[in-house]
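Batch 3, record 17
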Amino acid sequence: MMSSEFNKYQQLRRRSLILGVSKSLFTFLVCGKLYYLQILNKSKYGKLSDLNRTKVKILYPERGKIFDLYNKPIASNRLDFQLNIFREKKKLIKKYISTLANVISFSQRDLEDLEKNIAQKNLSDFIVIKKNLTWKELEVFELISNKFPFLFITKEKVRNYDNNQIFSHVLGYVGYKQDVEEEKLNNLKFGIAGIEKIFDTTLLGSDGWIKLETNSKGKIKKEINKKLAIPGKNIRTNLITDIQEKAFNLLSGISGAAVMMDCETGGVNCMVSTPSFDNNEFSNGVTNERWKQLIEDEKDPLLNRCIAGLYSPGSTYKILTALYALEIIGFDHNKIYFCPGFVEFGNRKFHCWKKNGHGNVNLFDAIKKSCDCYFYNLAKEVDIDSLSRFSKKFSLGMFTGIDIPNEHIGIMPDKKWKLKNRGEKWQGGETLNTVIGQGFTLSTPLQITLMTGRVATGKNIKPSILKTKNIFFEDLPFSDKNLDFIRRSMYSVVNDYDGTANSSKLRNQYKMAGKTGTSQVRRISKEERESGVLKNEELQYKLRDHSIFTCYAPYDKPKFALTVIAEHMGSGSKVAAPIAKNIMELALKKFI
Amino acid sequence: MNEIFFRFKNLYWFFIALVFFLSFVGFVMIYSATSGMEYDILSSHILKISFGFSLMLLVGVINIDFWKKNAFYFYVFCLLLLIWASLFGYIGKGSRRWINLHGFFFQPSELMKIVIILALAKFFDEKKIKEKKDYFFLILPITMAVIPFVLILSQPDLGTASIFLFVCFVVFFLAGLSWKFFMSLGFLFLIIAPYLWNSLKNYQKQRILTLFNPENDPLGSGYHIIQSQIAIGSGGTLGKGWMKGTQSHLDFLPEKHTDFIFSMLGEEFGFLGTISVIGLIALITYLTYQISNHFTHDNFSRMLGFGVISNFFFASLINMSMVIGILPVVGLPLPLVSYGGSSMLSYFIGFGLILSLQRHSKLRL
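Prediction for the assembled complex:
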């Protein structure tokens, strides 16, 4: 009995020992796991906990503003409200997008962009669900936002053009690039055309980032640290908003272009091409349908006619032919030719624009009245290669070097060019067409403006959109006497009662010099000539002549050189010259 | 009156200090969990600690003979409470297990964990070894254990039920039941395991499966374990500092003031903090062993001491194992540290019994 009782105590002792040992083992197991978690894997779990709470947002720089010559903003930025979600919650998008669609309208394009954004793996933990939220959408979202704690609104600065349409061609627009090297910049808009493209590096600035702390529901608690984005630099251009607007309005309903240049600085004060497009629409992301519509438009609204529209210079080219004759051939300007309305060359008849002819004319009158026959006769002394070289000094057939992209070089033909491009030898009759600015010659309105500017100043001026300092232009190697002769004849075109542009003389104290031109689109056949040349209005639109006028003012101290082209609007004096007059009057009144 | 004062003075104050320190750790963590902002939680916790402390001292001042003599009455009383709670109790957290005492919610199941130890210890103390090998004789103690277990399980409260069962096993084991008994129980368990598995609720099954592969469903039931491990692991050696835990304060950690309070401790005080708390628990357990081992010829007292401290120790370490991913998450608070009333009260009563034992052991010597 005693031993049994003793055993009972012994047994409890033994059992309690076993229990104690198992407790110790359990303790070691727990401590071991804690050691594994807290000592061995500290950095792993530390990173995981940071990933949990921190969200990185790429800060996009505010794009630099673009100002006109008088510091009026022509490209600035507006606040854009955007709906965002954290990348880790992206699974929720599909679930709630239909609910959200009741409040916020999603276009097909928005949904495509969203798909792209979700698929992208960039540094940012933010996915943009919808950009360009309207005030109404914001208000309604505010009401239901507590149902969607994982969604939030961010504010971004996006490009906005105060005068959309008017500056579209020269400013260009911004948009996404397809092949950005740094993936994180996928959501950044770059300059795609115009000034925006050429000065993109200046305007762009550099990006930054911000690290935010959020709780498990994705609510932002505080910011941890950040590197601010550096905004792009502002740039100042030579453009003048008032003139640009005026020119745009005057050209409304017309396909055409107006280029105005400051003769002292080469600064381009006005560069309008019509019809235009909405560069705000482009910057926000133009729809495919709209893009197709613009591309297929016969009037080609996307073309910047000022630098890429090609036109025969027409009679405006006569000022160069005349200067060439005086300078290179040593032609006597008092020489008189009789104009019967046509000149025979070889077996062909070359007609003057005035059917009954101008009678006896000298060089001065030939320019003033734009007599074709005089120049046909003069052409007999012209070597085309030499004339071509000469014309290139006035930028015809040459790049002007303007600081916006996609400039067209045009054509200033010579014998080599003919052989190479047409596979034929140069014909003598082609020189006759060339000296009156028809034939193969093609030029842009900017080139014609530059020609006028160089004639007006006698300096080798160069165009620029960007406002620059310390401008110096060399003198052209031509005599003042000959240049002056041309200038005087251009003066008479506008100011003499029998000048072709007499109806467009200025109604203020300034005098303007200029030259009209008609750029032929078709060749007038012999039969038509005999039955009477059709009036422009009687022709099909596409076959009508372009109306050209180039000019500068004031006559005695050239400040502005201007060229206006109105496509298919007939002779230069009818449409282009009055528009140029109105633009010039405004420029002289306000900006001299 | 003098007698009472004498008893009070003779209490094991070092032990009481350790218990107090552990509750203080709990207060500090709950303060951090609520960012010191939720005064009703903090004041309610202080109130419960004070009440529990008083209860512990009261139980400690009463002689152990009283508890031994009335053990079965307590058991019956507690069983009645449990039945009442299961039938008419207040429903909270999806199970009917609370009794509402004028706004103070109380779980009889928690009290049962202490009372069953008391009752079984008394039962086995009077039996001889030979009797314990008689299977027929074992029907009574097994019934004593199974009835409350089934009641608790049916509330349903899987966490408390399993820890209750575990405590019963510990007492059975200490009582010296033969290895064959446990082996046949294990065999029985294997047979009914599939049926048990099927009777589990889906979320309970999920929790067990998640243990083996938490990454399987990182946003579902595995989320809690992953976030808890991240919290503890990111604490490192010294922790992120009090009130500075990002996992806990930014709500990545679930139930941070109750079941997952240990994770928060690990995050804010690091390895040093977790090891210290384990050390404290180990020290309290060790001291209780010392006390119990005094009773070389009193199996009731020894069994009571071992049983009560095993309840505390295993509840603590199972909670820790849960939050570090060794055991499935079953809804079990960390004794004295977690926020929660009835479980804390039952642990304080347990410590009161230990204090009473300690006073008794000194008298004998």
